[in-house]
Every structure is written in structure tokens, then in C-alpha cells.
Amino acid sequence: MIKDIKHHNPGYGYRTVTDELHRRGIKVNHKRVSRLMREDGLSSRMYNRQTRKYDSSIGPQGKKARNRLNRRFNTDRPYQKMVTDVSEYRYGKMGQDERVYLSPIKDLCSGEIVSYNISDHPTTEFVMKPLLELINKRPNLNYRMIVHSDQGIQYQTKTWRQTLKRHHIFQSMSRRATCLDNAPMESFFHTMKVELYYGHHYQTKQELIKAMREWIEYYNQNRIKHILKGKTLIEYRNLALEKVV
User: Fold this and answer.
1) 196-200 contacts: CB < 8 A, separation 24 or more?
2) 171-219 confidence digits (pLDDT tens)
3) 3-class DSSP state for residue 100?
4) Alpha-carbon distance 67 to 173, whole Å?
5) Torsions phi, psi of 170, nearest 5?
6) pLDDT tens digits for 149-172?
7) C-alpha torsion sign, points 151, 130, 228, 169
8) pLDDT of 51 higher than 60
9) CA geometry: angle at 161 spanning 70 and 117, to 5°?
10) Residue 11 class from Cβ within 10 Å (0-12 exposed, 13-18 middle, 19+ buried)?
11) pTM of the model
């Protein structure tokens, strides 16, 4: 059973494998699962690779916002604390790589990727699409939303800032060269690249984008998390919404 779980979810550690076993009706201690995984060489060794990160702050500088979030990442309210960033993915022949860019928005309550966009160029219009999708998707709640980003030039533009202001959304920005101020978004990118990207070389843009979309759907709909008590992100978000709506 553990081998089957790891085959379909190679990024799962022993605690998450234990949660999945519990979901399947098998009661077992996490220490036993850890021992069995070590004995069969099933422990995750994927999460130690580092690569150069796309720097979205290079370019003409606009108006910056203060760090309202200030690393207070915990919340039990859906659509209250959102984080976003841009990451680069490569495809094509080795040595002649082309690039696409991913701009997701993550809800810190559940960890769900609420909206995202994939494009050839990291423009302001590129990051505006998932923001507008988030605004249209958010239920009518009795608390304001905060959207946190790094100091990327897209988030300093008049278009981004005025859209937030028009919809009564607080803007927040990480401090310069302080990636820990947006650690949940960095963690998502790392997880995605480890499970989808590292060890694979996609030959075409269509192949890469298809894999990205399928993985994000899997991440939201099927991937359980130990910190969410073995629930998927969507399951946890729906339960949290019931408490606040």
C-alpha cells in the first residue's frame, strides 16, 4: 500500500503517507511507516536541490508598499492572507532553453493555489490576470483581504496598486532581498519544481504547460497535507469557509 501511495505521490514524506493510509481506513503508527519506507528505500530525498531564481525586481522601479504581513503567515480565514510571486520554467533543446513564467496566488489558510497564469513574458498584464480572477472568485466575506508579494516591478505599477485599492485590498511587500518574507510562496515553487520539473526536460512549451496545469490541479484537488490533518487543500478550504460564511 505504501509503494502504491508513493508511486502516485512521489513527494509524500512518511507523515503524509501515514495520513493517506488513515484515509484508506488503515490505522498505523507514523513511526512504523517511517521504518518501512526506510527499509524499502522509499523515503523522500527530493527536497535538497537549489537553482537560480528568476529576479522580478530587475527593471524600472515604481512605488513600493510596506510589509503588512510581516511573516504572520498563519490564518484560519480563507481569502484573508494571499501571497504571490513569479517563477521561471525552461523547455526546449539543451543549451537553447526557452522560458515560460508562472504567476500563482496562494491562500495561506489552506495553501490552495486560487488562481494562476502562465505566459512567455512576465509583464504587468501577466500578473493582473490571476489577481482579477481572485477578486471575481472571492466570496462576500466580512473581513478585508491582503495580497503580499516581493518587490517585483509588476507589483509596483500603478495598474496593480490601483486595482487593489479599488477593491479595498491591502497591499503588502517583502523587504528587499529578503525571501523569507514570502516563504510560503517560495516553498510552493520548490515543491512544484521538485515534483514536476527537476529530473525532467520538456521539449516543447505545450508539453511543459500541460504538465504544469495538471500538477497544480493535482496539488489543489488530490494532494493531502499532514498540517491540514490529512485533508486536501480544497477539502480544508471548504470546511474553513463553512465557519466564516
Assistant:
1) 197/89, 198/46, 198/49
2) 999 998 899 999 999 999 999 999 998 888 899 999 999 999 999 999 9
3) strand
4) 5
5) -75, 135
6) 999 999 999 999 999 999 999 999
7) positive
8) no
9) 85
10) middle
11) 0.80
C-alpha cell at 19: 495520513
Confidence (pLDDT) at 58: 57
Task: From residue 232, give the alpha-carbon distance in Å to each of 91, 112, 166, 186, 229.
Answer: 30, 9, 33, 20, 9
Q: How far apart are CA 168 and CA 139, in angstroms?
A: 14
Per-residue model confidence as pLDDT tens digits over 61-89:
678 999 999 999 999 999 999 999 999 99
Query: Considering only CA atoms, which of 8, 16, 181 is closest in space to residue 84?
Result: 181
**Which of 81, 87, 91 shows the shortest CA–CA distance to 189?**
87
Give the integer Cα–Cα distance in Å for 189 and 49: 12
Q: Where are the alpha helices (DSSP H) in the chain?
A: 2-8, 14-23, 30-39, 124-137, 158-166, 183-192, 205-221, 233-244
Strand pairing class (170-173; 146-149): parallel
| Mean of per-residue pLDDT scores for the chain | 90
Amino acid residing at 59: G
Beta bridge partners of 98: 91
